[in-house]
Amino acid sequence: MKKKVTVISACLVLFVAWLFGVIYTNVRAERPVVKTYYMNENVPYEDDYFRRADNILNGYSATVLGYEIIPYDEYAEKYNIDLPEIETDEAGNTLFPWKLHTMKNGLRVGIVGIVTDYVNIWEKEENLKGIHITDPFEAAKNALAQMKEQTDLTICIYHGGFECDLESGETLSQTTENVGYRICKELDFDIY
Question: Is 154 within 8 Å of 190 (Cβ atoms)?
């Protein structure tokens, strides 16, 4: 019985020591800076995480007007926007190919929007009904090949992340969730 009490006491002491270590570490750990902005608050760009040293801000700032998350078709209806004809493949999946826009000065701009194919993992199936999301790198590569001869300027808008550090090139992710770095390095878009 005495041996059992000693083992339980030792376990209890070890648990308390472990718990103390966890609490001590968490209290002293550096926390990311969290900023809260309120409606109609003017927010200077000076401490923006994405701001690069070579940005010239000249006093620019942003004002938080609010947000509302609504489906695209409801947004278009609410703000009286005419939606373009939706293209589909043989299976009825919605296609979002690149678009050509001719500016008033005659400049032909090709724009393609790409999203990470991990949306297929995260998003609810009912939200992807009729949408077929493929490999983003291959989609960007195919769109660039199609638009290159028909445009003066090519733009790729990628909704995903970078798998490598932009300055050092060090690999940050081993998955294919983010391919922004690869798109920038291997494809010849004029603007990313």
Answer: yes
